[in-house]
Specification:
Helices cover 80% and strands 0% of the residues. The protein is mainly α. The radius of gyration is 21 Å and the shape is globular. It has 16 helices and no strands. The chain has helices at residues 9-28, 32-40, 44-71, 74-87, 91-94, 98-126, 132-161, 164-183, 201-212, 225-253, 259-276, 278-282, 286-306, 310-337, 344-372, 375-404. α1 (9-28) packs antiparallel against α6, α4 (74-87) packs antiparallel against α8 and α11 (259-276) packs across α14 (310-337).
């Protein structure tokens, strides 16, 4: 039997749209604190409050977007979410006061959270079933490439123009290009029935009516609850790292101005591991990929805190990048594999929300411990949380997944 084509036109369009989505996001992320400080003279605590609103609304919107994607025509839901995502960029230059900017930024988080769920679900739909595991792994490359390139592009443009408005409109145009790419996807949202779905028209109609009933299972995939809990541990670790890396490097390691280089190396590890792990994903070795990823990430976090020097600093970026690059597509594939066909959006939103909850807890708990005990104890806690998450996966989550796997 011939191998089904992975890189079909629709898949490439959805990947391109995902790249523009995250490129537009990361184009503004590193410079928004500077914009708020220079343009509105906002203090550090106010900047934190303003920017946290985006994350909060993104987190709240994801379960609802999973429900919408699973209940209504997926392409239509995706295009509405993407439309609001790109149009909100026009609100940034129009916001003439700090209050207006806060409102725009906070509301913008909702379509961002929704479109990440809708677009990744569309990617699953346009992939041939025999190449789905591998395709989801490659899909994440578009996120990683955007994260690696966009901040540097933004800093370069600002260095030569000192124009925040140029960056806002550039993000608007790039996001608009993603909307156009998704609008040309020709794959029907009406996918073949899963093995456990009714085949007769009457039974199918009844199933659709039941499916539209609002219940907790439409917002959170109960069949994958342990996978979600396990992901909270890993999100917690990355939340502490990404938010307190710069200040830890400066105060403990004496390293200043190298945060960009750290994340560039981490992104390179993410990309390399996704490429290297594609064969294992294609062969369905999801738990093997996940175990490799959790082990590599554990080594990275231990290296970061145990070796407070340049070797430990940059070495940890490589290991954490390689680890997350193996772990993320494995977990996403696993939770999709325990979900029924009409729960793919819910599965995607569940794993993303779990990561967001972990990130949020990392910011809060990491900040509290750093204030009370210092940054080194906070990062030792991170290393222990990562190791505990790894052990939970090996001992409990792996057999949990194998017993519930549908595909």
């Amino acid at each position: 039997m011939a191998t089904e084509r992975l890189w079909n036109a629709d898949y490439c369009k959805v990947m391109a749209a995902n790249f523009t989505l995250f490129f537009a996001f990361y184009l503004l992320t590193p410079l928004l604190p500077l914009y708020l400080s220079e343009h509105f003279h906002a203090t550090k605590d106010v900047i934190g409050i303003v920017l946290s609103g985006y994350t909060l609304t993104a987190l709240l919107s994801r379960p609802f977007s999973g429900y919408l994607v699973d209940t209504y025509p997926r392409k239509r839901v995706l295009l509405w979410c993407f439309f609001f995502f790109f149009i909100f960029f026009a609100g940034y230059p129009a916001a003439t006061t700090l209050l207006l900017f806060t409102i725009v930024r906070t509301l913008h988080g909702a379509p961002f959270g929704a479109v990440t769920v809708a677009n990744s679900t569309m990617a699953i739909d346009v992939l041939p079933s025999s190449r789905r595991n591998e395709g989801i792994g490659y899909y994440g490359l578009s996120n990683n490439l955007a994260m690696a390139v966009a901040p540097s592009v933004a800093i370069f443009i600002y260095h030569y123009t000192h124009s925040f408005h140029l960056l806002f409109w550039l993000a608007f145009i790039i996001a608009l290009a993603g909307f156009i790419a998704d609008s040309t996807v020709k794959k029907s949202h009406d996918q073949p029935l899963a093995d456990d779905e009714p085949s007769s028209p009457a039974s199918r109609q009844l199933a659709k009516k039941k499916h539209r009933l609002i219940s907790f299972d439409r917002f959170f995939l109960k069949r994958g609850w342990l996978l979600a809990v396990n992901m909270v541990f890993f999100g917690f670790c990355f939340g502490v790292l990404s938010n307190y890396l710069a200040i830890y490097g400066k105060e403990v390691m004496g390293i200043t101005g190298r945060t960009g280089a750290y994340f560039a190396i981490l992104s390179a590890g993410l990309i390399l591991s996704r490429l290297q792990g594609s064969k294992a994903l294609r062969e369905g070795k999801l738990t093997l990929n996940a175990i490799e990823g959790t082990i590599l990430s554990t080594i990275g976090y231990l290296l970061f805190v145990a070796c407070p020097n340049s070797i430990g600093y940059y070495g940890s970026a490589i290991f954490i990048g390689l680890g997350n690059g193996h772990m993320w597509p494995a977990f996403q594939n696993m939770i999709i594999s325990v979900a029924r066909h009409n729960q793919r959006g819910t599965a995607n939103s569940t794993i993303l929300v779990s990561w967001d909850i972990g990130m949020g807890l990392g910011v809060l708990i990491g900040g509290f411990i750093s204030e009370m005990l210092g940054y080194t104890p906070a990062f030792w806690l991170v290393a222990m949380a990562q190791a505990l998450g790894m052990l939970i996966f090996i001992a409990f989550t792996r057999p949990f997944f194998e017993s519930r796997r549908l595909e």
